[in-house]
Amino acid sequence: MRAANPSGSYKDLVKQIVSEFDGKAFPNTAYLTIPEYDNIVPEEDWTAGLPIVLRGIHNQDWNDIAHGIVISLEQVENYPIQSGREDDPAKEWRNRNKRIAGAEEKVLEEWMPADLMDMAKRSIKA
């Protein structure tokens, strides 16, 4: 729905969801997660609307379900704009290579003690 009208408002999207699904069976709670968003936004953002969706399913209210979906969608759409993607290498706390680069370089330089290195070099020459 959002792809069909990306510039539409969230209120319009809620109305569209309610009008399209009103009177139909309610979704199974086992299918409410969206794990493919883990690398785009933190879990607490893409799951922000799930409690409201669960309340809507429990109360059998499509308005609550639509509202919860839109809360999660808003978080997923706005987070990358405001903070960059979660897997963006510029984010220091996610960039493991940057954090360990110094230690890794030191280990690679001194991975074998000098006397063992000299012995290995002599054995290659011999």
How would you state the average pLDDT, rounded?
A: 80
Task: Tell me about the largest β-sheet.
Answer: none
**Oligomeric nature of the chains:** single chain
Structural classification = mainly alpha
Percent range of helical residues? 55-70%
Percentage of residues in DSSP E strands: under 5%
N- to C-terminal distance: 73 Å
Number of distinct helices: 6
Shape assignment: rod-shaped
**Helix and strand element order:** HHHHHH
| Rg computed from alpha carbons, rounded to a whole number of angstroms | 26 Å
Number of strands: 0
Uncertain residue ranges? none
Quick overview:
Helix content is 59%, strand content 0%. The chain contains six helices and no strands.
Characterization of the model:
This protein has 126 residues and is mostly helical. It has a domain of 85 residues. 59% of the residues lie in helices and 0% in strands. The protein has six helices and no strands. Helix 1 packs antiparallel against helix 4 and helix 3 packs antiparallel against helix 4. The protein is rod-shaped and about 85 Å long.
